[in-house]
Design a protein that fits this description.
Order of helices and strands: HEEHHHH
Number of helices: 5
Number of strands: 2
Number of domains: 1
């Protein structure tokens, strides 16, 4: 009896690297299970892209917050901000 990987193919998931690759055996593509697997993998790919976009947005906010935190009061005033409103500006952009 063939191993399940030989029937269904291989699925590799790496959210941190923001990729989900699949290799599905041609025989398995013709079965209902393989179609369900393909749909599930597509959903996971979308989820991985969403998580990666969310993480990237958090990284940008953190970098912007750090840049504003490194500025002096004078530099913040030059761009029309005070220290108290700097975090709100970064979050609400």
């Amino acid at each position: 009896m063939p191993h399940v990987d030989q029937l269904l193919g291989v699925a590799t998931f790496a959210l941190a690297g923001s990729f989900v690759s699949t290799a599905v055996d041609p025989v398995a593509r013709s079965t209902r299970g393989a179609r369900a697997l393909a749909e599930a993998l597509a959903a996971l790919r979308g989820l991985a892209r969403g998580v990666e976009a969310w993480l990237e947005a958090r990284r940008r906010v953190a970098a912007d917050r750090d840049a504003l935190a490194a500025m002096s009061e004078r530099e913040l005033l030059d761009i029309g901000l005070d220290r108290a409103s700097a975090n709100a500006v970064v979050r609400d952009r």
